Amino acid sequence: MTTHGGFEPVFCTIVPPHVLDKLAQAEDPALAGPARRTLQRDAFERTQRRLTTVIGATAVAAVADGKPQRTVHDARHGTDLPGHKVRGEGDKPGKDATVNRAYAGLGATFELLLKAYQRDSIDGNGLPLNATVHYDREYNNAFWNGEQMVFGDGDGEIFLDFTIPIDVIGHELVHGVTQYTANLTYFGQPGALNESVSDVFGSLIKQYTLGQTAAEADWLVGAGLLAPRVTGKALRSMKEPGTAYDDDVLGKDPQPATMDDFVRTGRDNGGVHINSGIPNHAFYLAATALGGHAWERAGLIWYDVLTGGELKQQAMFADFATLTVKAARERFGDGEELDAVSKAWEQVGVRTL
């Protein structure tokens, strides 16, 4: 598997460890049990990811023809990947809504990448898109393991089926795009940028599918994933980081919106799911200032930075911000795009170099 700079992919989940840690401490075993098992399973899969980097991943044949090659498997509540094939490219929808949602989400991600950015699949070379659903029992997560997507069904108490929000599917697949391009280090600010890029394009995939403008979008990541008993609306908010949930079991959304509240922690790979709120908010500010469809101007600028070859694996927020300013100028000149991007970073307290 070829990656920018020669480094190998990492194991990336949609639900942050700090959320599962909080759940694992709940007094109610119906809440704590699934969270603990999910943490254990995530730790195992993370180890498997490291082993794969040592022995090498299985080569996958790709055909760069501008058409998706989707396969959805069913783990049947087991953990062997990829599981039993239940739907291939071009097959008609079946009775399992989870399978159908996964298939559609893979297709929506492929379509946005191709039509908006002329990128043929996540590697740019027609890589087949594979997913596994019904992974484990009461598994409270979804992940990209460097080779494929995997979705849990949730515990029904805190999390519902992880194929419900299309931006969750897009988020995890875009970790693959990052893997094949800038391959941002998954720790600290570079890791928060890695997470933010997935939130940005996951949100754009949802907006593109719904035909929404920046003003019409909710800018929530994972809306529809939280069960009715949870006091919250999503996993994260790009519009108002720190407001996605405030629940007696989950606690309060810890994401900062600006550098004034940057969180310094050794947990969650240096707060990659927490501090991603800052670049997330910068994108929201730039996109809404420009108006129209966010995947067009703001999205193009972010895509240019991710894939342009100048973004280093150890990039900090200021490095990324500086490259977005440069990309805005190179693509659009000294116009409103440059102004919107520059002001967005200024508003979140990130200096451009």
The termini sit apart by: 33 Å
User: Approximately how much helix is present in the residues?
Assistant: 40-55%
Coarse structural class: alpha+beta
Number of strands: 10
Continuous helix count: 10
Order of helices and strands: EHHEEHEEEHHEEEEHHHHH
**Principal-axis shape:** globular
Instruction: Describe the largest sheet.
Output: 6 strands, mixed
Oligomer: single chain
Supply the key terms:
disordered N terminus; alpha+beta; 353 residues; two-stranded antiparallel ribbon; six-stranded mixed β-sheet
Please explain how this structure is put together.
- The protein is of the alpha+beta class and 353 residues long.
- Helices cover 43% and strands 9% of the residues.
- It contains ten helices and ten strands.
- It has helices spanning 17-24, 29-55, 97-117, 166-180, 188-210, 268-271, 277-290, 297-307, 317-332, 336-347; strands at 12-13, 70-74, 84-88, 129-133, 142-144, 149-151, 220-221, 236-237, 246-247, 251-252.
- The strands form three sheets. It has a six-stranded mixed sheet, with helices on one face. A two-stranded antiparallel sheet has the order 7-8. It has a two-stranded antiparallel sheet with strand order 9-10.
- Strand 9 and strand 10 form a beta hairpin.
- Helix 1 runs antiparallel to helix 2 (29-55).
- The protein is globular and about 55 Å long.
- Mean pLDDT is 93; it is low at 1-7 and 52-57.
